[in-house]
């Protein structure tokens, strides 16, 4: 069947920006990369001129679709089907934002028809007093000439399978001529090109009000995460916006939001995946919306089984659906940065992979957590940790939903009721591996085996269990000056004689929080290996924290050297990671210690005896 461009589509878009056209099919007649700002982190944008054979209009490709251009699937003369789009008016120009595309034919030989610029045509009609009103606004449509047949390419084309796999369930297409309810656009369409935008979204998460005071004055802020079935976006309010909007926006409720400033997303602090974020202004409008059935409560784009956490990088942000197995008591810690008390609570989760993990809740979430054990809990955007074994932690942007109405929860509940309640569960607790397995004598690698098998060539690196004796610890650079802010730990830079600056937090501190950065040589009976380790490793092999040790170094160098030397000639069981890195065009394998513990010789001896008996009995 010959592909058809949708007749009169551009004109209909132009005359009614709220109209959605089913099975919209257009041709690309021009494509160009454009920039939206001087910000280096701004995503690449592609401006595409699309045509229906009679008229053409400027369109912008949503950034999540950039790969179509980068993979050369969309090019000049390509034919596209557009299941999702929005129309914005910028000054006197109309711009279509393409939110979803399907490549019908990537390589089409020529332009179809002789399309004209819809904006120029409209301006010409406006300047000509003899021009008749556009048919779209005529009360009597009988005067409108019958439409011309659809423009058809003169060859048969079939839709090319699209590699675009949206992370959201497909919504039912609107019928031709149906208007968007409330004149709102999808969150995925929010960008600097969206003029007079309005979104209908659910508040999935809201932070507590944060306050600050510095030489420039006092201030306060809060953030919320909005979501709809196209994605999620973060919004932040400062000072007056906190007073105006904080109490109005409640978690779980759906609102119509408009009139906010669109800025480039600050990726280190923004886990929504959106390239932009909203800043609330004095003119921002928020209206509670009673119609919420079509707005999801949670989006799980990075759903991960607990057993897969071995392959997930430390500090990665993931989604989890799990059974609540145990709820710990509330405890308190003191923040190094503020010296304020922070409330925390640990809970234990399991899933179908028959693994359990510790999840830490913080602040108000920890205090108000009341879900009963054996509930199904969905977490969006939690952070993977690596201290005391793999663990998870909620962060300020995380979302938690108890017994959610989603297929993953129903499947998990069925598994738990039938099998999981009596299943043998493996733990990520600190057994010395950090990768979910108990270290056994036959799992230990020697230095010779590590090098001979070329561990580290895997793209993600290779993990191995290892036992060796520390022969040397580099004392010249045993630590680094870290940011005291909770969960930051970035290196501080001196700012004058008396202050230190964190470029990530953009804050000044009177003193750093020193953290270990260990480099050492270890040895077993087959050879030596150069290892590196971070603060958790240093706190085990040295008798004090890094702040105390650096304090001694600054006052008594000889005592400092003695403490470091005394930490050698001791044997440890370790879990390490090998990964090939390139430095100055030279490839080398870096070996890092993830977990370290003194050898339990009694347990090791019993395991060895068991292994020998098993081998001899065989």
Automatic annotation (TrEMBL):
Predominant subcellular localization, coarse grouping: nucleus
Record domain OB: where: 197-280
Replication factor A C-terminal domain boundaries: 463-604
Keywords: DNA replication, DNA-binding, Metal-binding, Nucleus, Zinc, Zinc-finger
Entry's family note: Belongs to the replication factor A protein 1 family.
NCBIfam families with a match to the protein in the record: rpa1
GO BP annotation list: DNA recombination; DNA repair; DNA replication; telomere maintenance via telomerase
Cell location: Nucleus
Gene Ontology molecular function: DNA binding; zinc ion binding
Gene3D superfamilies: Nucleic acid-binding proteins (2.40.50.140)
GO terms for cellular component: chromosome, telomeric region; DNA replication factor A complex
Pfam families (UniProt xref): Rep-A_N, Rep_fac-A_C, REPA_OB_2, tRNA_anti-codon
Protein name (database record): Replication protein A subunit
Biological function: As part of the replication protein A (RPA/RP-A), a single-stranded DNA-binding heterotrimeric complex, may play an essential role in DNA replication, recombination and repair. Binds and stabilizes single-stranded DNA intermediates, preventing complementary DNA reannealing and recruiting different proteins involved in DNA metabolism.
Subunit comment: Component of the heterotrimeric canonical replication protein A complex (RPA).
Region (Disordered): 119-179
Residue intervals of the Replication factor-A protein 1 N-terminal domain: 5-106
Stretches with biased composition (Basic and acidic residues): 149-159
Signal peptide (from-to): none
Residue span(s) of domain Replication protein A OB: 306-403
